[in-house]
Amino acid sequence: MVTEVFDDIYQMEIPLPRNPLRAINSYLVRGRDRWLMIDTGMNRPECLEAMRASLKELAVDLDRTDCFVTHCHSDHIGLVSELNTGKSKVFLNPLDAAIIRNPNLWTEMAAEARTHGFPNPDRAVEKHPGRRYLFSGDPEFVSLREGDTLPIGKYVFRCVETPGHTPGHMCLYDPEARILFSGDHILDTVTPNITGWCCGGDPLGEFLESLDKIAAHDVRMILPGHRNLIPDPLRRIGELKEHHRARMQEAIEILAAGEQTAYQVASRMAWNIDCPRWEDFPIPQKWFATGEALSHLLHLERTGRIQGKRREGKAFFSL
After folding, report:
1. Residue 284's closest CA among 20, 10, 9, 56?
2. pLDDT at 18
3. How do residues 5-24 score in pLDDT, each as one tens digit?
4. C-beta of residue 75 within 8 angstroms of C-beta of residue 187
5. Do residues 89 and 152 touch, judged by C-beta distance below 8 A?
6. Among 68, 230, 251, 285, which is least packed by CB within 10 angstroms?
7. Distance (Å, rounded) from C-alpha 296 to C-alpha 273?
8. Which residues pair with 29 in a beta bridge?
9. What is the DSSP annotation of 284-296?
10. Tell me, what's the pLDDT at 1?
11. Distances 169 to 22, 54, 161 between C-alpha atoms, Å
12. Residue range 27-32: mean pLDDT, rounded
């Protein structure tokens, strides 16, 4: 389905089969002699079929279409090889490009998950959609960083680095039109997954700082990577910050029972999933939930509200 959401800006809804997010919003911006695509969908036949139908409806020439990828997750970057004719550019922040170029990425993530109490992480990695539906081949990426611009048609988009969801997550902002392509940084009705599996540090802390960064911009409409457009950015930013504040408080209350791994904490947190017990969660959902719990625990540790320690190859957290 194709919808013109602003002058010369078209939203394409690309299905994500058997995925809780249901679909991704891919966007096309029409210029005088070129197009700019923002995010693509997973590398799977259902996504490619829907994408090609939308491109045909808009009479898009892929030889004259560049692609800006907000971040390295497969639902946003998976089709870049299928869509690139060799005459186009694929723009990506170099931090995220380095992640997906890392040949040891999934082995390292499985090892980190094992440290935090996740059982059989190799099985979870094997089923992970980020691994199964990533692009084929070896596409070439053009690096963009904070403050770089992408002019297309009547728009001049500025790159805004918003680490958190991934280290190199990046939004596009047009100050004159006051619109922001937010990727997975800000979503409506669902909260972006902030995981502690990848790259260490304090991803939740970075995410919260990135929310404040966007709040300082004059934005009248957010065009997100999933679900609905967001006409009141400050309201949604406030809701996301409150969500994570409540999540951290929940983790602290769980730790009142004694030291635990991230996997144990995740198993005791409340999750919006149609499963009555933690034991019934599909492995991919346990993976996402544990990674999210870990990001909250790492931020609480970084800010001095809980303690973390390692013992016999396992990481534990306590008050």
Report:
1. 20
2. 83
3. 999 999 999 999 988 889 99
4. no
5. no
6. 285
7. 19
8. 9, 36
9. HHHHHHHHHHHHH
10. 84
11. 21, 26, 6
12. 97
For the chain, give every domain's residue range: 2-247
Q: What is the largest CA-CA distance in the chain?
A: 63
Q: Looking at residue 82, what is its pLDDT?
A: 95
Q: Does residue 139 contact residue 126 with C-beta atoms inside 8 Å?
A: no
Query: Could you give phi then psi for residue 48, rounded to 5 degrees?
Result: -65, -40
Bridge partners for 159 per DSSP: 172
Tokens of 114: 């094992």
Please tell me the class of the 2-247 domain: alpha beta
Sequence-separated (6 or more) residues with CB below 8 Å from residue 309: 315, 316, 318
Rg of the chain (C-alpha set): 20
List, in order, residues 6 or more apart from 7 with CB less than 8 Å away: 154
Torsion of CA 87, 37, 134, 163, to 10 degrees: 120
DSSP 146: T
Spatial separation of the C-alpha atoms in residues 7 and 30, rounded to whole Å: 9
Element (H or E) spanning 276, and its range?
A: none
Closest among 158, 195, 206 to 178, alpha carbons compared: 158
120: left (phi over 0), alpha (psi -120 to 50) or beta: left
- Amino acid occupying residue 306: I
**Six token digits for residue 201:** 């540090």
40: which 2 tokens? 């693509």
